[in-house]
Specification:
The chain is α/β, with parallel strands linked by helices. Helices cover 42% and strands 14% of the residues. The longest helix is centred in the first third of the chain and has 44 residues, at 259-302.
């Protein structure tokens, strides 16, 4: 692109020139290709055309008939350049798009938002071709297509595909306006007699006419013609010194395993060095060697992690240094050698000559040197900068280089690949005159805006007419020079060619006048047979598979297939010659679901035959669901492609939709049996009592229980942890149905209010007492019985109304102490009535021999009167009152968890009175170990209306009732699960293990943050593994055409926290979850209370629900994270598995989603004819695969499964539809996780959840499985065709042999133990991943072959893993990451660093400032290595 204003001209220069107006009128009349010289302002014509048609792209959406303008360019740098021009000179909304923005993976909704929000879209042609191919936009939605450098639209170029496959097929009425821009209508070589045919071909493709201006004299004013000159040089030949230096690269490779890689790099360097010598002489050879040394030092440092690569680059580095030393020996590093090379000297002489002529205008000088190779551009730039410092005659020149960024560049040239950002930086420096000489490849021949150059030099011969025109057009300054350097060998022919091109330029001007537009039926490209097969159009989207795009779609699909670093991402293409025709056959990678070879139609060229075969493959991939209707590999749009939104989370939501918060509030559920169970007047109620075993002679002094209008189910006994030891509580029916009168009911109400305010220590302002409409319904009551009939207690019990009267006679829970009635203090609870001091105390003795005038025990300087006066300004009135010796009442409210400091007593032990006194004594000791007695003055205390003996029992009741509600919830959930998952379940018949099931479900409903004696974490660990195993099996058998990557994506979606949370909410699980401790103020609502209706309270911790079975419409809520709900789902699955069996567990998953039915899975079968079965049997015998079966202890019924389990993705079995092991590896991984999780769960009940995770991780990490594979020799039977995989396995085995890991005559078990210890010791041994994959795939194959007999697979796996179990028996191997986090709970700072190739670099900073750095095969591996390094450092420091 050449901007009309690129030389900082005044804004008046933006007025249209006469020839620009002429071209605009032509473009408005009919489709036009403007052919004008470089620098003549073609882009300005395009801007005027866009503005002239902007009413068509105003504001209407595409659905309402709106249209968009697309401005297409050929290279990425031009996207930004053209979009900036449009933003400056129009008021339209401009969008710019390049591949680096990740547009290849944008989904339909994202593209639709982008298209609707912009009026003009500037992009490379490949991007428009992609969105047309996917049906994200249709041709009739486009009002104008602008093609920059449209002469490139030949053959199968993106421009040509857009026109041929889409615009040509659109109804003429709805086609867009076409506007093309070019300075050279001919692309490539062209004879004069073919100019007209080439112009016609372009016109017919673009449906346009080529036009140029009649104002040639004005055009010449804006595109000056440079002075052309040809200079000759003599090509120097190689000599002995140069050959001896380069031969160093071919010397013996010192024990390198990866010889292929070393040879490849050496050959590449050799070519570059030879090119440097041929083009730049001895001095150039030395300079490129120095640059390569710098480059390979960097690569070698990155590759240190990989010993194989480090050795390769180490050898290369040594050879380069030796070559450098030889060059210095011959003095090639001297600048004098620059003038000894004929070609380089010719260039330097011309530059010196030009420096003299521009003596007065050095500040505005700009020049470009065009070279052919990237390595020459970099080296020549380096040489010129060095010479500028050495040679005054070249001192004016400040040089840099610009090259392309394309892939597929030789290893030695990695440094010469420039990113778009680096290109832009160099060009920007050139524009700002920070440099004045640019050495470039053809990347800036056309399009990119650069300053008008004073001199342009072609260092290499010009290959095409377009290169001649484009590079010449860069010399646009006044008195500019265009210099072409030509080897004098055969110079006459070369000069003749240049003169022909000059003549062609004039001839083109004549051909471009007064032309009629081309027609699509004149298309000269039809002889390429690109229409051999009609396009395959998908009606729902309009997407098309064509001959032109079939290869790119196929390559994109193959790149989406799951593969490791050893697997090529391309199909195998074989072309058969049939006389004058060709036929292509494509074999997909073995990891694809198309194992059969597919052939296309015959064609007249190999290229077209390959397209035809790719077309058939793409159509087949769409038919089996591997390509969506938008022709996108389903890896990127899995959920939408499968249309399984009910099973898997919808990942294709609009990106602008706000994501759901990670935690939300949910209504807590009251057990159904407690709904509306309020005792009512004159109606029968049920009485239940609490029994403690042991009672420690404390909990037998009084009896308490509850009354309810509904009969409770049998509640299993449960432990509580009182201040005096563990006690098992039973809630027993008294067998008596009572009728309560109005007066008695009011007394019970008042009793519950008083004990809640005092004993239960209720401090929640959001609650109010309303017993007749309370939340839970039941009420607490004291119980009495006849002393002579204790053995018949359960039949003779009744409510103790006398005790209730003694309590409720007082209106408040605290009363003043009557000094005249000291007997009332013998079983009393008192609290201080001064200051802001809380706490309740039991009166242990009344000290009648002491009074307030006595000195305080332990304080000989003050008596009580003085102390209270000085500290609290209190005056004691009664100086004769006795003192109260008191002891702390234990403040523990949560008795469902045993505190760490509490010493539990034996369940059968009964304390004596003396022992009891000693245990509950709360006297505190001072620093001298003297007992400090607590004494209170009665006058300054208040007494609770509840006696101490009753207080101690009542203090346990909140924990008892909280547990009772939890058990009733769990019992309710148990009934739901049994009804839904147990075949032929009879609700009238309880299961024998009903009590065990209820308690297990209670555990599954209890979160760790509830700080209970148990929680769901162990169950969640088991349920997670079983869920993955079950779903993996379902996916493997249901989606036989899905590869491992797609299956993994589907599995991840189903077991994700988001999805399980969604399913859990759908089932109503959040209300059953126990997430808080009983002593949390918002957790438990005491009997007789409900939640206030005030809005301010409701906002804080309650919600109003219109649909409720409870009388009160206000319910308590709890805040739950998504992960918590998901964990409960997995824990309930484990509870079903353990208590109800596997069948019920599978049914539970079906409850989560009714579409998943495990009893309807198809059998795994591959139909084969007799010939193919014979081939399989032949492979089985020739490779002695029966030895694998012998080691496994299993004989395969279907030998295809065995072959598949041993086939790496790099291998294709000839003529056999055998897929690689990846799908079986996916299944085997899930099976192994469940087997190890199940085994470790049952192995030791004392394993914490963290222990279980560590044990599973250590057993199943790739290193552990690789040890099994190597020891049992499975790797020897691997079918693979990857030299690098062979090399890495060989190197791994060599490392083990060199370190003498195993001793002679060791058993298999001993070897496995030794291998595992060695590999796992520090994580530094590099283990090829396929070694672990083999074992996983074999496990998956066995499971499918034995018709999913889990018991059989479980026995085989545990037998093979037995040596590892022995190794882990002495202690669970802990993850170094977790260990380090435990040492630094404040957090660790991990950072990822950018690296090249497949190596990853990361660093770790500890809170104390220490920093560790490492490199690894992935960031997870780096994290493990860093934590090991940090732990080793800490250990050394401690020692």
């Amino acid at each position: 692109m050449e901007d009309q204003n690129n030389d900082n001209q005044e804004s008046t220069a933006l007025l249209p020139r006469p020839y620009q107006c002429e071209m605009l009128e032509a473009a408005l009349e009919k489709n036009t290709i403007v052919c004008l010289n470089t620098g003549s302002g073609k882009t300005f014509i395009a801007v005027m055309l866009i503005k002239a048609l902007q009413t068509q792209i105003a504001t209407m959406s595409l659905d309402q008939g709106g249209k968009k303008t697309f401005f297409l360019v050929n290279t990425v740098p031009l996207v930004k350049q053209q979009s900036v021009v449009l933003e400056k000179h129009t008021t339209l909304k401009i969008g710019s798009y390049i591949g680096a923005d990740g547009v290849d993976l944008w989904k339909e909704q994202k593209w639709k938002r982008e298209i609707e929000s912009h009026q003009v879209l500037v992009m490379t042609a490949a991007i428009l071709l992609q969105i047309l191919r996917h049906g994200y936009i249709r041709v009739h939605h486009i009002n104008l297509l602008v093609f920059d450098e449209c002469h490139r639209g030949v053959g199968n170029h993106d421009y040509a595909q857009i026109m041929r496959d889409y615009v040509h097929h659109e109804n003429v009425k709805y086609r867009p306006v076409i506007f093309g821009m070019t300075a050279s209508i001919i692309n490539g070589k062209c004879a004069q007699n073919k100019i007209e045919s080439k112009i016609k071909a372009l016109e017919s493709l673009m449906l346009s006419r080529v036009a140029t201006t009649k104002y040639q004299h004005q055009l010449e004013k804006y595109s000056t013609k440079p002075e052309e000159s040809i200079v000759f040089y003599q090509q120097d030949g190689a000599d002995y010194c140069v050959q001896s230096i380069i031969n160093v690269l071919l010397q013996y490779n010192n024990g390198i395993v990866s010889e292929d890689e070393l040879d490849k790099i050496s050959n590449s360097i050799q070519k570059d060095c030879l090119s440097a010598y041929e083009e730049l002489g001895y001095f150039g050879l030395y300079q490129i060697i120095c640059l390569l040394i710098t480059q390979h030092k960097s690569i070698h440092n990155i590759a240190l992690y990989d010993k194989s690569k480090a050795a390769v680059y180490g050898q290369i580095l040594n050879k380069l240094k030796k070559m450098q030393a030889m060059c210095e020996k011959y003095h090639f590093h001297s600048c004098q050698y620059a003038d000894r090379h004929s070609k380089l000297k010719t260039l330097l002489d011309n530059l010196r000559k030009y420096q003299i002529t521009m003596a007065d205008d050095k500040d505005h000088f700009c020049g470009i040197i065009f070279v052919e190779k990237r390595c020459i551009a970099m080296t020549l730039s380096h040489i010129l900068n060095n010479l500028a410092d050495y040679d005054q005659s070249l001192s004016t020149f400040k040089c840099d280089f610009v090259v392309g960024h394309g892939t597929g560049v030789n290893s030695s040239q990695v440094m010469t690949n420039m990113t778009y950002k680096q290109q832009a930086c160099s060009i920007d420096k050139f524009r700002r005159h920070k440099i004045n000489l640019l050495v470039a490849t053809n990347v800036i021949e056309e399009g990119i805006d650069v300053p008008k150059c004073n001199i342009v030099i072609r260092y290499n011969e010009i290959k095409t007419f377009s290169s001649y025109m484009q590079s010449k057009g860069r010399a646009r300054a006044q008195m500019a020079h265009f210099i072409m350097m030509i080897d004098d060998h055969g110079k006459d022919e070369k000069v003749r060619q240049i003169r022909q091109w000059a003549a062609c330029q004039d001839l083109l001007q004549r051909h471009c006048h007064d032309r009629e537009p081309g027609h699509e039926d004149d298309d000269a490209l039809t002889n390429l047979q690109l229409n051999l097969i009609p396009p395959f159009t998908i009606p729902s989207t309009g997407s098309k598979i064509t001959m032109s795009n079939s290869i790119s779609i196929l390559n994109w699909y193959c790149s989406s297939l799951p593969r490791d670093i050893y697997t090529p991402a391309s199909p195998i293409v074989k072309i058969q010659s049939l006389g004058e025709l060709y036929k292509a056959t494509i074999t997909m990678p073995s990891c694809s679901p198309l194992p059969e070879s597919i052939s296309g139609r015959t064609a007249r060229s190999k290229k077209v035959a390959k397209m035809a075969a790719a077309f058939v493959v793409c159509r087949e991939l769409h038919a089996i669901g591997q390509l969506t209707d938008n022709l996108i590999p389903v890896k990127y749009l899995t959920t939408k492609a499968l249309q399984l939104d009910d099973i898997f989370m919808d990942t294709d939501k609009d990106d602008s939709t706000e994501a759901e918060t990670n935690s939300n509030q949910y209504q807590r559920i009251l057990p159904e049996i407690l709904h509306d169970c309020h005792p009512r007047l004159l109606e029968e109620v049920f009485l239940y009592r609490f029994q403690f075993k042991p009672n420690y002679q404390i909990y037998n002094e009084r009896q308490f229980g509850i009354i309810t209008s509904k009969q409770l189910p049998e509640i299993p006994p449960f432990p509580i942890y009182t201040p005096y030891g563990e006690s098992k509580v039973s809630i027993l029916s008294c067998g008596t149905e009572l009728v309560i009168q109005a007066k008695e009911m009011n007394q019970i109400y008042q009793f519950n209010r008083l004990i809640s305010q005092s004993v239960f220590r209720l401090h929640n302002n959001s609650l109010q007492f309303q017993a007749s409409d309370s939340y839970s319904g039941y009420l607490v009551v004291p119980i009495t019985y006849k002393a002579d009939k204790i053995e018949k207690f359960h039949r003779e019990a009744t409510i103790d109304y006398n005790f209730i009267s003694n309590i409720t006679n007082h209106k408040e829970p605290l009363i003043s102490i009557d000094l005249n009635n000291l007997e009332a203090l013998k079983d009393a609870v008192v609290t201080r009535n001064y200051g802001n001091i809380s706490g309740y105390f039991e009166v242990s003795a009344i000290s009648t021999d002491r009074s307030p005038v006595d000195y305080m025990i332990g304080d000989c300087d003050r008596n009580f009167m003085t102390y209270y006066k000085e500290k609290y300004n209190l005056q004691i009135r009664n100086l004769n009152q006795p003192l109260l010796r008191v002891e702390h009442l234990h403040r523990k409210r949560d008795m469902l968890q045993c505190s760490k400091s509490q010493k539990l007593s034996s369940a059968s032990q009964i304390f004596s009175n003396a022992m009891q006194k000693q245990l509950v004594n709360t006297r505190i000791h001072n620093s001298k170990n003297q007992v400090k007695v607590i004494e209170f003055i009665p006058e300054l205390c208040k007494m609770s209306v509840v006696p101490a003996s009753a207080w101690k029992i009542l203090a346990c009741i909140p924990s008892i009732l909280w547990r009772m509600e939890g058990i009733l919830l769990a019992d309710e959930m148990a009934y739901i699960l049994q009804t839904a998952t147990v075949p032929n379940f009879n609700s009238n018949t309880l299961l024998e293990a009903n009590s065990s099931l209820t308690l297990t479900i209670l555990q599954a409903l209890t979160l760790a943050r509830a700080r209970d004696q148990f929680n769901l974490e162990r169950l969640e660990f088991l349920g997670d593994s079983f869920l993955k195993f079950a779903i993996a099996t379902y996916l493997f058998q249901s989606y036989t055409k899905f590869h491992e990557g797609q299956l993994t994506t589907l599995l991840s979606h189903f077991v994700s926290n988001d999805n399980l949370c969604r399913l859990g909410i759908k089932l109503g699980l959040p209300g059953y979850i126990i997430s808080q401790k009983v002593d949390h103020d918002d957790a438990w609502i005491p009997p007789g209370y409900c939640i206030k209706m005030e809005d301010d309270c409701m906002e804080n911790w309650c919600e109003k629900f219109t649909e409720s079975s409870c009388n009160s419409s206000v319910k308590p809520v709890q805040k739950l994270r998504k992960k918590s709900i998901a964990d409960v789902v997995e824990a309930l699955l484990a509870a079903s598995l353990l208590q109800l069996g596997e069948i019920s567990a599978y049914h539970f998953i079906t409850i989560l989603n009714a579409q998943i039915k495990f009893d309807q899975l198809p059998d795994y079968a591959i139909p084969l004819d007799t010939t193919k079965m014979e081939q399989i049997n032949k492979i089985y015998c020739s490779y002695n695969l029966r030895q694998v079966e012998a080691v496994l202890g299993y004989k395969f019924n279907n030998r295809i499964l065995l072959l598949s389990a041993l086939t790496h993705a790099s291998y294709n079995h000839p003529q056999l539809p055998i897929e690689s092991y990846q799908r079986l590896e996916f299944l085997g991984d899930a099976i192994l996780q469940y087997v190890t999780a199940r085994d470790s769960y049952h192995a030791n009940e004392n394993y914490t959840p963290a222990d279980l995770h560590d044990l599973k991780e250590a057993s199943l990490q790739n290193e552990s499985l690789a040890a099994i594979t190597v020891v049992y020799g499975f790797h020897k039977y691997l079918f693979q065709m990857s030299p690098s995989l062979f090399s890495d396995i060989h190197q791994f085995l060599n490392v083990i042999d060199e370190d003498n890991v195993c001793k002679p005559n060791q058993s298999i078990e001993e070897k496995l133990l030794a291998y595992s210890k060695y590999i796992l010791k520090d994580g530094e041994v590099s283990v090829p991943k396929p070694l672990g994959d083999i074992f996983e795939s074999l496990v998956g194959a066995i499971y499918i072959d034995c018709h999913k007999s889990f018991k059989l697979v479980n026995d085989i796996v545990l037998k093979l893993l037995q040596p590892q179990k022995v190794m882990f028996a002495n202690g669970v191997p802990r993850s170094p990451v977790r260990v380090l986090y435990e040492k630094f709970p404040s957090g660790l700072c991990f950072k990822k660093d950018t690296t090249e190739d497949s190596i990853r670099k990361a660093s770790l900073e500890l809170p104390d400032g220490r920093i560790f750095t490492t490199i690894g095969k992935n960031y997870k591996h780096c994290k493990k290595l860093l934590c090991n390094m940090a732990l080793q450092s800490l250990e050394k420091e401690q020692n």
